[in-house]
Amino acid sequence: MNAIDVVRSNFDSWNRHDADAVVAAFVEGGLYITPSLPEPVTGAALGDFVRAVFVWSSDFSLDLISIGDTGERVALEWLAHGTNDGPAVDGTPATGKQYNLPGVSIEQVEGDKIRTERVYFDLLGLQYQLGLMEQKAPVAEAK
Prior knowledge:
Elements: H1 3-15, H2 19-24, E1 26-33, H3 43-56, E2 61-69, E3 74-83, E4 98-110, E5 113-121, H4 123-129
Parallel strand pairs: 1-5
Antiparallel strand pairs: 2-3, 3-4, 4-5
């Protein structure tokens, strides 16, 4: 498998809600880094996080916008969407609101496995969509 095939297979595992396949896509000790967590996860902790995402949003899905191999990394642009119909890992109750979350993942592939996946998305924007934070009007410039 080439690097793009490895990454596409992992992307498809998320859409199948297959946490075990997501974990299996990584080399032993491979890291998953996301704004949703205070530190990188690996192995069983990654599986627990993926399962928690599917509890938080039982209809979670990803649309692939673009994918490219830079030679050292594979970059994906995606759109996550669904409904927040379950509690967050920190116990925050479900809001029942739908979300559309654009994001990017940068993945380092080693052989036919992922060494590192770094996920980037607007966590504050997601909180606004879910009604967890009130979006304030911009401050007027001083004259």
